[in-house]
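Revision sheet: structure tokens.
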Amino acid sequence: MITVPLIFLAVGAVAAGWVGIPPIFLEHADKIGEFLAPVLGHPASEGSHAEELAVMGISIAVGLLGILIAYIMYIRKTDLPGKLGAMFQPVYRLLYNKYWVDELYSKTIVQPTLKASERIILGFFDAKIIEGIVNGVPALIGAFSRRFRTIQTGLLSSYGLAMVLGAMFIIGFWIFLK
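Predicted:
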């Protein structure tokens, strides 16, 4: 299943290589260098064609050497990686654990962030804001309804008196504004 993403990455790498092809092959082919020149500036010095060819040759040779070593270790002599790991145990452990960068990152970044977010989100936001809204709105409605419960007496004479007083207030307010 990993083959398909690797094919896409390989096509992208080849395309990116063609975008930044050195001038030794095509004179005005370095489009990415021209594009970035206003930001990065022009190179302080340019290598000769021989130096460019040497760098490309060394890069290709190192890549092919890596492929050859991988072929020998994992296809021809499959017991060789285990023997090398046992021979160079400290180096093997260091490389196998990826220099313990993940553990360091977890201790210095991930764990403090989780603890701080737990205190902030659970300790403050959830406990004060969310719980305040969830419990506060019903409590406010209950207090509001207890105050207005005394107005609801069920006596029509009380309701009529309230209507007359309200109408008199509105008429008086209207006359006062004129």
